[in-house]
Every structure is written in structure tokens, then in C-alpha cells.
């Protein structure tokens, strides 16, 4: 009996060893009902380990990476958990670490990557607030990471900027003093990150130096709003003394009849400005024959000529046109007639057309005449290659040259890549279409694209009217690139008159007290009628004064919801709300 028992145990042990060998030394088999089982070698490298040496630690080292799918699932954090994490982080910064309320609120709401990292370290299925509070108690965080992220920098941008020997912001009082001074001056926090990245040394200034440098630019005759835009786009101006090259550009522009704040309207946060190159550009135009009046008109009609690329594009364009044999007065006339000529797409199409004409053997003088007469059409259309065209027509290059010489517009009808646009161009009102197309190209639409075709149908009005409405938003203080992005999201915003746009902006600022940048995140605000805007914003302001509504709610929350939802959450929350709502609807006309 004893022998039989021993042999039975031995067989059981043998079977267990066989199962273990199959588990760790064989590819895993994933079986599903009604499907064929196929071996998967995804975990083969993880499960194949040596039997020699200390096996326990080896198993841990190799099996640990297989937990990745669990962590990936954990990355899908619910909105509720994220909101709770923001509140817990705010409490930690404000109550535990003693951050000012506005700093703690901004950092907690504008550091999503850092919050994601925190949530990955706690169990999000439980009480997130309690879990994070406990985590903060035993794991102090590096406060520079969420701080820099909240200023608009991505993690890969600020990693090299993190101090090596500091974790707490309060330990860098010089940085905080300069940061708060910039905030108090009016520079948006989201733009300070770029300033810190591009000119870190300005945040090491002693007390009073930063304020003195900002005043120095105001002393040049610039308004505070222009100084804000200027130093946000070009923080290097705050390094050292007042930039002499910038002063030179400003004086040149004043001599051309521009006000001190003109330049601030067209600065972009996405561009890099070289003031010495701008000076060279203006000197170059003077040398090739432009007087101050002509140059002033040129820059007024096309500020990008000077500001985009700091004037680099003008050298290329002017030199190529002169090389074609055009006179300087002809070049000047072309710039005035086609102010969009310096846009990247327009210039590229134009020189492709010139290349096309050279390829078919056309004389330089004839090409110059075609460019002079049809520059706008050449710049708006992308052409096929000359060989493709003459082969499709089954003619040689010389026959094609003769066809185009007799009727230069044949170049567009025969060689354009987009036949739909060609048909539209030859419709009843080609000038109006070209004006509108020119405007759309100037705000970033791709020529000859489906997006362009749809936009031509959505925008109502002439090209100059659309440009006037666009300029209205830029002159109000919005960045040119932001306005372009807004218009693409909400095209009907430009289907309103300039007066209506100005009234809506005034309502946002004076009635609600919100910064103009609020509409960048919700451009549809400009599309709602004035009745809805005035009534709802006035109701919200009334609730806010009574402490019955949260401050700084988003515009989309206030305007995008249905009437029923708005009444439920913004009228019935106060006993006197319904009476106030009825009063507003009768006493606040939209006109």
C-alpha cells in the first residue's frame, strides 16, 4: 500500500511539473468559443527564463512588465476622478503648501499631465480625494513640474528647465517675484511659459528690475497692451537694455506714418522676430526705389510683408521679379494690387507657373507680361507639370506654348489641378470669387482643397467685408492666428457685421467681466444672437453677485445649453431667480 501511495504521488508531481513546463516554456494559447486556437508568442520572452541561478528574483524581473495592460486600463481616468484630483491638488497647494488662491487654482486646473501621473499612483476606483490626500502626506511633489506645465509648456519642453536641487517653489523666491510681477502687469499665465523657456534669465532679476524694463518700453510711446503682446512674443527684449534694433524699427515705422501701437496688432506668439532683418528689409526697399509714402501704403495693405519671417520673403520675391525684367515701379504696382503675393502658398504657385512657362520655351519678356497681367490667377492655382499637360493634350511643347501665348488664361484651364475651381473662376462674378478666395488663403485655408470649396459656400459677403470683420477681431486684441483658428471652427462668426461683433465683444468685457481670450476656446459665442447673450449673461452676473453661481464659468456652459436646462440650473437655483429672469427678458432689448 505504501509503495502504491508513493507511486501515485510521484505521478501527480510529474503531471504538475509537466503543466508548469507547458505554462512557462511554451507559447500561450488564447481560446475563444467557436474560433480556432492559435499560439501567441507575445509573452514568450517574458516567460522563458533560465532555471539556473536564483529563480525567485528572476521571475519577478521578467513578469513585472506584463502588468502594462493593467496600467493602460488605469490611464482611462473618468471625468469625475479627474475633477476630484484637481480639487485635492488645489487643497494641497493652497491649504498645505500655502500657495495663493489664484496660483493654486490655476496650477491645479492647467497641469493635466501631472494630474494623470498622480492618478496613476493611487486607486481611482476608491475615494480619489482621500487617496491623494494620503499620497501627498507621505510623498511631497516636485512643484516646479505642475507650475511650468500650467504656464503652457509641455513636459518634454520643461524637463531641462527643472532645477536640480529644488522641489518647492517657495524656495525660489526670485522666480516667484518676477512671475507675479508679470501676472500683475497683465501677461497671460499661459504665455509666461514660453517666456521662461526662451529667456530664463529674466526670471533671475533682482527686485524692481523687471518693472523698470517694462516701463522703459512704455516710455517709447507703447501702450501697456502692446508691451504685453510684445514681450510675450519676443521675451528677449527684456534681456539687457532696451533693444536698439527694435527702437530703430519703431522709429522707421513712425516715419512711415504708423502709430506706436500698430506693430502690436500683428504680432503672433507663433513667430520669431528679428528686428535687425526688418531694418534691412526697409533699407532694401529704399535702395530699390521705394519712397516713404509708397512703403507706408505697402505695409499698411500687407503687414505680413514686414512681420512674417521678419521681411525675408520680400528679398526673394523682389529679386525674382526684377530678374524677369520687371521695373521697380511695376513691382510696386503688383504688390499693391496683390498684397497676398508674399504668402507661402501664393509665392510657391506663382513660381511654379513661371517654371512651367520657361519649360515650354516661352521668352522671358512674354512671361513677365503674363505675370504682370495675371499674377493673382497664377498665385491661386497649383499647376500640373508641363510634360503631363502636353502629353494629355497629345501635342508637343511648342504647340502648347503657342496656345498659351494666344490666350494666357488657357494656362489655368489646361494645367490647373482643380477643375472645380477653374469652373468657379470663369463664372459670372470671378472678381468676387477671387477676393473671397484670397481672403481664405490669407487665414490659412489650403488652396484648391475641399475645405476651401466648403468655406466659399459658408462665408457670406465680399472679400473686403470678410477682411474688415476679421481685422475687427484682431484690433480688439486677439492674436491673428487665434482668430484664423476661431473662424475655421465657427465660420458664421464672420457673416455678421462689424458693429454686431463689436457689441458682442463689449458685452463680454463689460457685462461679464471676462477677458477677450475666453472666446478663443468657444468661438461660437460670436454666432449667438444678442438677445440670448445679454439675457443669459445678465442672469449669470446677478447670480454671481448673490453667491449662487461659481465664478468664471465657461461661455459654452452659459450659452450652449438648452433653455430648459438653463432655467433649471441658472434660474431656479435662487428663490428670486424666476422673477429676475422674467424681468430680464422684458427689460433687456437686444437693440
Automatic annotation (TrEMBL):
This is Transcription termination factor MTEF18, mitochondrial-like. GO terms for biological process: DNA-templated transcription termination. It comes from the Eukaryota. Keywords: Transcription, Transcription regulation, Transcription termination, Transit peptide. Pfam families: mTERF. GO terms for molecular function: nucleic acid binding. The keyword Transcription applies. It comes from Escallonia herrerae. Belongs to the mTERF family.
